[in-house]
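Students often ask why inverse folding is considered easier than folding. One informal answer: many sequences map to the same fold, so there is more than one right answer. In these notes we will look at a single instance of the problem. The structure comes first.
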């Protein structure tokens, strides 16, 4: 039986992937429009601002039955495949529902043991097979770089390429999480001059946490932002991210505890210590310096916000949830709307939403309320 192999050979791939990212990115755009969504580095400030405006419009249009019907009609002739072979709750559900908001019919594989991969079909061939039946592939995969490889493969080898969205790739990137994180930051700071100039603390397992990596890349788009990284010594942010931030002129500090940052941060972005990877079974007590408790809230700025990509375990005490600065449940709701807007951009219905969709915005409701 042919074994699973990330390294199944496709002529041209090895040469392609060795090139600098800036030279690879154009392959994943079509006529100036984003096509495959793989890396946070694909998003610039005009794209982010435009996407957030579109997100606000879509969520307002969807509020009324007529608007929701109109949105649902936009892509009723389209089909999407959700290939999630690494566990997910909110990314899977938010993409599924984002597709449904826009009318996509959906199918899914969440366990490769239920597909012909169990017979030895390579994941690459599985993805090519999906492209025979659907118009969009959304992929979560445990292997870093696999989303890029399959997107490249569809573009170069397939006679029916379809767009591919990376919904989390190993410990590498989670670009659509970064989109919803920045959207949440932007809305939270709307009345305080936006994200520019804010101090953002990123806390927890920064080495293996792909959400912090993708979010850090986006910070170059917001002048004056300062990042404060707080992680156990073994899980500090990667050298590649530090090099990127230095090259982009984004100031950052590294710390080994959250406590001294509580009063400095405008946003505290908590993450889970991913000790499921630890072979030596470290106890959670070793990570207490990276937990946010109710008693810590008094030390925070009165208008600072708390974020978390979720899922959480013990790193945010449940009692924190009732504080108005706790933003993480809103943050995860934002994910469905931003993903609907992203899919609309990929399929070119964004202009229609901005023009024809305007008629469903006549209720005078605010653009967005957190
Ligand atoms: N934030 C996030 O990626 O959550 P899931 O793993 O539940 O999708």
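Output (designed amino acids):
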């Amino acid at each position: 039986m042919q074994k699973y192999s990330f390294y199944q050979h496709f002529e041209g791939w090895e040469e392609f992937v060795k090139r600098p990212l800036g030279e690879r990115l154009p392959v994943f755009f079509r006529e100036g429009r984003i096509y495959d969504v793989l890396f946070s580095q694909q998003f610039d400030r005009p794209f982010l601002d435009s996407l957030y405006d579109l997100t606000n419009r879509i969520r307002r249009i969807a509020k009324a039955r007529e608007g929701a019907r109109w949105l649902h009609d936009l892509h009723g002739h389209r089909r999407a495949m959700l290939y999630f072979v690494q566990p997910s709750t909110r990314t899977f559900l938010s993409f599924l529902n984002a597709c449904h908001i826009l009318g996509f019919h959906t199918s899914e594989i969440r366990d490769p043991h239920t597909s012909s991969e169990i017979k030895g079909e390579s994941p690459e061939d599985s993805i090519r097979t999906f492209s025979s039946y659907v118009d969009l592939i959304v992929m979560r995969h445990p292997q870093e770089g696999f989303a890029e490889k399959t997107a490249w493969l569809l573009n170069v080898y397939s006679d029916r390429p379809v767009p591919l969205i990376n919904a989390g790739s190993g410990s590498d990137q989670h670009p659509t999480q970064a989109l919803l994180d920045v959207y949440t930051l932007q809305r939270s700071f709307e009345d305080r001059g936006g994200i520019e100039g804010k101090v953002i603390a990123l806390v927890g397992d920064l080495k293996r946490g792909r959400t912090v990596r993708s979010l850090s890349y986006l910070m170059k788009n917001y002048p004056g932002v300062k990042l404060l990284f707080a992680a156990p010594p073994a899980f500090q942010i990667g050298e590649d991210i530090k090099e990127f931030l230095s090259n982009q002129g984004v100031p950052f500090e590294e710390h080994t505890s959250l406590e001294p940052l509580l009063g400095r941060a405008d946003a505290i972005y908590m993450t889970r210590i991913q000790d499921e990877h630890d072979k030596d079974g470290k106890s959670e007590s070793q990570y207490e310096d990276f937990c946010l408790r109710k008693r810590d809230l008094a030390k925070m700025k009165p208008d600072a916000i708390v974020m978390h990509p979720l899922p959480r375990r013990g790193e945010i005490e449940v009692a924190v949830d009732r504080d108005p600065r706790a933003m993480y449940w809103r943050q995860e709701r934002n994910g469905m709307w931003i993903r609907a807007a992203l899919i609309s951009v990929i399929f070119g219905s964004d202009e229609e939403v901005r023009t024809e969709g305007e008629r469903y915005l006549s209720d005078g409701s605010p653009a967005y309320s957190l």
